[in-house]
Design goal:
- By secondary structure, the protein is of the alpha+beta class.
- The chain is 44% helix and 18% strand.
- It has a three-stranded antiparallel sheet with strand order 1-4-5.
- The protein is elongated and about 120 Å long.
- 7% of the residues are buried.
Length: 198
């Protein structure tokens, strides 16, 4: 750049217009411009281009599948963490529900306390908590915990004859098994043993 009067360099201006403004004629491209416009001499063959395209397409599909799987895994983990958090909070409230049930059984659930109890129970139901364990249903060791055992001629299979504490579940997950008294078919008297008589 040529120096200016104050010692600074002057800017260089290049005219890249294709038509000369003075003559109106098309300008010829310089050698550098012609080299830039022409494709490189060693262009890959058409088969190589297709192979590279197929490879990059497969890479892109693999990357996209990994991303989709990652998103699914994150959403599944979020749902599992939320369910565990809700289950933990509900498990801590089960003794309160037991106290409310005992108060209801004894007729002490009246007035404002009854409204609070109903509100609490409805809120817990909205979260997915449900109770189970009814008198007379068949004994299922996956959802019942037998605290007492007896024999009765009135039943044909092991049956919950009394519910000592209701069970609770959140969706399909059992938070607490129902604690029951179980009766099996048979005589109410214990069987005698022949060895004891000798």
């Amino acid at each position: 750049m040529p120096p200016r009067e104050n010692g600074q360099e002057q800017p260089v201006i290049r005219d890249n217009r294709k038509i000369d403004p003075e003559t109106g004629q098309a300008r010829e491209a310089s050698a550098a411009e012609q080299a830039a416009e022409q494709p490189p001499a060693a262009a890959p063959a058409n088969g190589e281009l297709e192979a590279q395209l197929a490879e990059r397409t497969a890479d892109l599909q693999r990357l996209q599948a990994e991303y989709v799987n990652y998103r699914r895994r994150v959403e599944r983990d979020r749902a599992a963490v939320r369910e565990q958090a809700v289950a933990g909070a509900l498990a801590d409230l089960l003794p309160v529900l037991d106290d409310i049930g005992r108060a209801r059984d004894h007729g002490e659930l009246t007035g404002g306390f009854a409204k609070v109890a109903e509100s609490l129970e409805s809120a817990l139901t909205k979260l997915g908590l449900s109770s189970f364990g009814q008198k007379g249903e068949p004994f299922d060791p996956t959802v019942h915990e037998a605290l007492m055992h007896s024999y009765s001629p009135d039943v044909t299979e092991p049956t919950a004859i009394e519910v000592l504490q209701p069970g609770y579940r959140l969706g399909d997950r059992v938070l607490r098994p129902a604690r029951v008294a179980v009766a099996e078919p048979g005589d109410a008297t214990p069987a005698s043993n022949d060895d004891d008589e000798n």
